[in-house]
Amino acid sequence: MIRVLLVDDHAMLRAGFRTILSTQPDIEVVGEAGTGADAVTEAARLQPDVITMDVQMPDMDGIEATRRIVADPAVTASVAIVTTFDRDEYLFQALDAGAGGFLLKNAGPEELITAVRALAAGDGILAPEVTRRVLARFAAASTPAPMAQETTIPRRSAVSVLAEPLTEREGEVLALMADARSNAEIAAALFIGEATVKTHVSRVLQKLGARDRVQAIVLAHRHGLA
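The structure corresponding to this sequence follows.
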């Protein structure tokens, strides 16, 4: 069972999420919280696998709550920010805080269910339009300003930040991950099985020291690996 903690200051929205998720035989809503401070407490007490986190809440906002939950070594939950506000500031603050997903509240029920399962499996989840903005931001940040009479070091030289170099195939998988491809799409593009893709993704996460797929994408662009 995937154990889920719902965090939102609107009780009706939590009730809606509970209704959607409770229809699934492999998902159990184990608790709710209406403030960021309560979310931190309940995450430690209930030990959920996945937390859906609102941003604007009393006492402590969802970004700070996420940061504290992720920083707690006793809590292993993946956090998905679920917000009404499609703002870059929330998106990038959430990723910096360690969130594994970013969804909008206008997403359909199936998207919420898929996100919960993906996060529980160790994958990150971002809406396609959000992924493009993440990649654009880090691509821009990784582009060095031109300097007279100075040779620019290629971005891929940043591979030295890895404790163990990626194999050629792992590099191909990472590039496709950074292009927001699913495991099925990566398998089709490389003519390999999905089980093989999962193995490569796990190895990539391990070598990058990334908690999930989203953090791997961010790290890849931050260090010029994709």
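The longest strand covers residues 27-33.
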